[in-house]
Design a protein that fits this description.
alpha+beta; four-stranded antiparallel beta sheet; 5 helices
């Protein structure tokens, strides 16, 4: 009987220790799980914050690069007035025949300019009397320009491709000869231009206030993009 009691006591002690060990294991596992979740969440948050900071830095760097690029291209900060020396250089530039032709017409977008009228005043066409029959009349002077020459002219002064212009199909094009043929309105003479003022807008483009002296009208405002040593026309409207 006594042996049975001692055996039972030993068995109970063993169970107690087993329960204690199990409790410790459960507590240990619970603590590890909680710690792991908290640590993982903190690591994810730190990684998110780090990525956010990197993205903000990259965005700011890009903006600064774009701003620096605008200043390098134009020599001016956005909103800054153009100095008189540069205005005079632009005025002289406007008086060249190929450039002057872009100022005769008004347009909200350069792609809406009347290409035939532009050609008549640009001076890039040559004698095309041998092709006058293509336009249905040989009265007066007929001019011609190759597609390649017209493409290069438009690309240089507008940055646009020939098919970007809404009026290109209004000029007679001979696929056989690869020529644009059009009537001439007489010798091309550039208008006398007077540049009044100018500034660089938020897009980094030059906004020039000028007057065509022979016309009795309000001043005009042309928007230009500086490209290397030239300018590309964007719009030309009344001020």
């Amino acid at each position: 009987m006594k042996n049975n009691e001692e055996s039972l006591k030993k068995s109970n002690k063993g169970l107690i220790w087993l329960v204690i060990i199990l409790i410790l294991i459960v507590l240990g596992l619970s603590t590890y799980i909680v710690y792991d979740k908290v640590l993982t969440k903190e690591n994810k948050q730190e990684e998110t914050n780090k990525n956010t900071d990197i993205s903000k830095k990259d965005s700011n760097d890009l903006k600064n690069q774009e701003k620096e690029s605008d200043e390098i291209n134009t020599g001016y900060k956005n909103g800054e007035s153009i100095i008189q020396t540069d205005l005079q250089n632009i005025e002289d530039y406007f008086k060249t025949l190929k450039v002057n032709a872009f100022l005769e017409q008004k347009y909200n977008s350069i792609t809406d300019i009347q290409i035939e009228e532009l050609l008549k005043t640009s001076g890039i066409g040559v004698d095309g009397k041998d092709y006058c029959n293509l336009i249905g009349s040989c009265e007066g002077t007929t001019l011609k320009v190759t597609k390649k020459d017209l493409e290069e002219y438009l690309q240089k002064y507008t940055g646009k491709n020939i098919n970007d212009f809404s009026t290109i199909n209004l000029i007679h094009y001979s696929k056989e000869y690869d020529l644009y043929v059009y009537p001439s309105s007489g010798p091309s003479v550039p208008f006398d231009i007077n540049v009044v003022s100018g500034y660089v807008n938020g897009d980094g483009n030059y906004v020039i206030n000028y007057k065509i002296n022979v016309l009795q009208e309000e001043n005009r405002e042309v928007v230009l993009k500086k490209f290397e040593n030239d300018y590309q026309f964007i719009s030309n409207t009344e001020k």
